[in-house]
Amino acid sequence: MKNQLYIYNTLSRKKELFKSITPNRVGLYVCGPTVYGDPHLGHARPAITFDLLTRLLTYLDYKVRYVRNITDVGHLENDGDEGEDKIAKKAKLEELEPMEVVHYYTERYHDYMSKLNVKSPSIEPRASGHIIEQIEVIKSIINKGYAYESNGSVYFDVKKYNQDHPYGILSGRKVEDLMNNTRALDGQSEKRDALDFALWKKAAPEHIMRWPSEWSDGFPGWHLECSAMSKKYLGKEFDIHGGGMDLLFPHHECEIAQSTIDNGKSPARYWMHNNMITIGGQKMGKSLGNFITLEEFFTGNHDKLERAYSPMTIRFFILQAHYRSTLDFGNEALQAAEKGLNKLMDAMNNLEQLVTSKESDVDVKALKEKCLTAICDDLNSPILIANLFEGVKIINSVLAGKQKISEEDLVYFKDLMHAFVYDILGLEVETSQDAGNDEKLDEVIHLLLNMRTEAKANKDWAMADKIRDELQNLGFIIKDGAEGATWELK
Amino acid sequence: MKNQLYIYNTLSRKKELFKSITPNRVGLYVCGPTVYGDPHLGHARPAITFDLLTRLLTYLDYKVRYVRNITDVGHLENDGDEGEDKIAKKAKLEELEPMEVVHYYTERYHDYMSKLNVKSPSIEPRASGHIIEQIEVIKSIINKGYAYESNGSVYFDVKKYNQDHPYGILSGRKVEDLMNNTRALDGQSEKRDALDFALWKKAAPEHIMRWPSEWSDGFPGWHLECSAMSKKYLGKEFDIHGGGMDLLFPHHECEIAQSTIDNGKSPARYWMHNNMITIGGQKMGKSLGNFITLEEFFTGNHDKLERAYSPMTIRFFILQAHYRSTLDFGNEALQAAEKGLNKLMDAMNNLEQLVTSKESDVDVKALKEKCLTAICDDLNSPILIANLFEGVKIINSVLAGKQKISEEDLVYFKDLMHAFVYDILGLEVETSQDAGNDEKLDEVIHLLLNMRTEAKANKDWAMADKIRDELQNLGFIIKDGAEGATWELK
Questions:
Q1: B250: preceding bond cis by omega (within 30 degrees)
Q2: Choosing a second label site near B457 at 20 to 30 A (CA), which of A130, A417, A440, B295?
Q3: Residue A139 or B74, more confident
């Protein structure tokens, strides 16, 4: 029987038993990246969180349609950034057509997600590819009286919405408080109210990304794409909407308002938000300028990094924290994660070597139960990992002959460890390009270098020179240093 | 100074000197895949042909904006297939949302093109993402009087166009002949004339992919996307339009007609068409059911394949034929290509080991001239490859001490071989996972094994045993055989 899954629903602020709208099927929408910069640690967390969710749902026999969008137009940080489209701005800086910027960074994002073993979603719609669908939503909202045109732009009327719908339902904010905290911004005079947000923006003459509409040549507001695309691919009402906590307000709040008017109902039954990655307590993000890119992590090429960390180390580091906790970046924490990961993966390797006995004195069924309960409790990956380390203990204990396992139990045990480590947590054996043989190569060369040291000690200069020369002929550069000889490839 | 590039222009049916519209910049549009099936050899040829062109243009110091589309909607093989959209049909078969099919096969296409070392284009627009742009082109053509609405669909009026424009200019077909050869098809009664082609099709009720328009809820005709997207990303007039010969008629002919009316001028200055890959003389294609996928080539898992062929073997096989010749598939030809490729790549490896002399009796400048002339003569890759084999002869001859090369010439020689083999032909050393360091590892171990053999010869048994023992400690198994010692990893 399937295990019951509990999810913390931001909408109700409590853990709820998950029930899908259609039996055995799940519609999941997650806010994807704005493709105007290199993928960084802040991108890795939502991607890994909802990859974990998808993997778990699949394990629980759901068929998942996972839609994760690409924001390639119209990302206004707030309505004060009138027309300052992040992608168009980047294109200006790099003197490229905006879609060249989009193409480049979308590919980078895909490459790095793939390194992190994040599975590709089922559909990856782009905002720029769904203008017509967004225009249809705007028309529907205008027809229902909740949006107005002003000088070629169209705004959502938050005050009117709030009269008969709870604006702030997701974030717990109150319109009255928001109004008191909003100062009048330049260029906002088109709006009836400072809280109103753009559904359509008239493009300034120099704005490259623009489409015709009945209101103006312009572009959609940022919040709109998710309402239009989730409806198109998942329907008016779907199961789960996910995203980073930073998107909760105003993005998701606005999405709910738009979709509620457009479709007569709230779009998603469950809202899930992963917490932020921080550096010294501050959110890591491109707009804050304190981010470390995934490439920098994998190469170690950044001031704040003591050395390189592999993709699986980053994945494990993220999974070791519960997705709703903040996760503070630090070399020490990363190195601890790496150590833990190595211990786990070494045990997975040893698992394949275990010898069975006639009897068993391990309780693998209880272990599976504990693992499943942990991960089905709102994706509690840190508890799951702690349980898997009990599995590690069993492996090492059987290996050392201190405990016994029967053949039947071993089959069950392997199944459960494979399912949780590989399928659900999505960890994989890392053979970083050549890493396996790099290590062997290093060992063999050091064998030769040690022979050379010995030869020198024995005053066998001919032998010492021969070893150095032969290695040089093979393309190795040998450097003698205070701490012994090192080598590199030419 | 830049070399002059000659291109066979399908439009003029002759080789022409290439001149770009904007100095040092080239706008290139190539028809990409319809993503409803796994990438096969028929996809590899246009991708590699226009990759070669882009690499050459880059080598010649042009900045290239390369746009290659993804056809993800509205691919009607001919207007007889009313509404039988290939992707929607596939989705029905697989019970998926069409965009899931699109996403899956687009990723497969990307993966396999990457294995073939085909560079990603600058922009990869999707038909479904440019509905609004296509609707704008239809409106413009209707306004100019060259298209008419009929029962919610819109058709291009070929007869009217042909009165003042030469329909058939690209393919050399005559409207009169075409009309005599066209039989009336079922469901074509909406059209004024059998030659007219769809710009917009009203969607049947069960048709999933549909968008609103002033004519009907429907979808664009296949030819339209390229007119709309090339205009958007390259302008009304651009340099080169490429594609497979099978697209020449009706697809490209219709594109010219549409764009000419929309923009008042023919879209591309140069039209380039790669010829087909055949099996026993018949075109290889999904619609013909005789295709071999790239995955099948790389694994050898297909009846017609004697064994697996590597991505670079496939690339070299394609480059060994001129792009305007047909290329017949066969195991013998592939094995010959593989042999040729190995010979070339071995020589490239030897090139790095060459020892220089004070004098030179090789003429590397003449060789470069010949190479450049060949590839600038309408991408004559087979002649270029023949010239590169003269380079191989030089390498082997210098290596054998039969010819001499000066340091200056060697630098020049390396530059030219690298440029043509790696940068322009896009061949790369194939290091099947770890192969690179496997080789180094093998070399270093053999160094140790040779030292052991010497030690034995010198009756230095202690040293001989030490080497064997230390290698065994590192996990290597050493086997002494008639032909010397071999090793493997435990």
A1: yes
A2: A440
A3: A139
Q: Which residue has the higher pLDDT, A230 or A279?
A: A230
Whether residues B471 and A100 touch (CB distance < 8 A) is answered with no
**DSSP conformation class of B242:** E
CB-CB under 8 Å, B212 with A97: no
**Span A314-372, pLDDT tens digits:** 999 999 999 999 999 999 999 999 999 999 999 999 999 999 999 999 999 999 999 99
Q: By C-alpha distance, which of A130, A124, A192, A109 is closest to A155?
A: A192
* Percent of chain A residues past pLDDT 70, beyond the cut: 92
**Residue A30, H or E segment:** strand A25-30
Query: For chain B, which ranges sit under pLDDT 50?
Result: 1, 77-81, 186, 433-436
More confident residue, B488 or A306: A306
Size of interface A-B (CB pairs under 8 A): 105
DSSP label at residue A66: E
**Closest Cα partner for B153 from B183, B192, B182?**
B192
CB A255 within 8 A of CB A157: no
Are A437 and B434 a contacting pair at CB < 8 A? Answer: yes
Q: Can you tell me whether residue A326 is helix, strand or coil?
A: coil
Q: Which ranges constitute the DSSP H helices of B95-248?
A: 98-115, 131-143, 158-164, 175-181, 224-234
- b/e map A258-279, b = 16+ CB within 10 Å: bbbbbbeebbbbbbbbbbbbbb
Strand partners, A357: A406
CA distance A172 to A11: 9
Q: Which residues pair with B14 in a beta bridge?
A: B9
Sort strands B268-274 and B238-244 into parallel, antiparallel or unpaired: parallel
**CB nearest to A100's CB, from B123, B132, B437:** B123
The per-residue pLDDT for A338 is 96
**Mind listing the pLDDT tens digit for each residue in A196-205?**
999 999 998 8
**E strand map for A297-389:** 327-328
User: B280-292 burial, b if ≥16 CB within 10 A, otherwise e?
Assistant: eeebbbbeeebbb
**Residues near A424 by Cβ (< 8 Å), separated by ≥ 6?**
A52, A55, A56, A59, A375, A384
Which pLDDT band holds residue A140 (cuts at 50, 70, 90)? Answer: very high
Q: What is residue B280's predicted lDDT score, i.e. its pLDDT?
A: 79
CA A159 to chain centroid, in Å, comes to 35
- Cα–Cα distances in angstroms (integers) from residue A268 to residues A21, A97, A252, B318, in the given order: 10, 35, 11, 50
- pLDDT of A94 over the 70 cut: no
**Residue the block writes with tokens 């017949």:** B328
Give the whole-angstrom CA distance, residue A382 versus residue A384: 5
What structural domains and CATH numbers belong to chain B? 21-274 (3.40.50.620), 279-424 (1.20.120.640), 435-489 (no CATH)
Q: Looking only at Cα atoms, what is the longest distance across chain B?
A: 97
Determine the distance in angstroms separating the CA of A354 from the nearest CA of chain B, rounded to an integer: 18
pLDDT at A235 over 60: yes
CB A270 within 8 A of CB A18: yes
Q: What are phi and psi of B33, to 5 degrees?
A: -80, 155
Look up residue B127 and give its DSSP letter: G
Cβ pair A266, A259 in contact under 8 A: yes
The pLDDT value recorded for residue A246 is 93
pLDDT digits (tens, 9 = 90+) for A347-359: 999 999 999 999 9
A65, A122, A470 ranked by CB distance to B447: nearest: A470
Place of tokens 């993997």: A55
Cβ(B474)–Cβ(B445) below 8 Å: no
pTM of the model: 0.86
Exposure letters A226-240 (e unless 16+ CB within 10 A, then b): bbbbbbbbbeebbbb
pLDDT at A79: 45
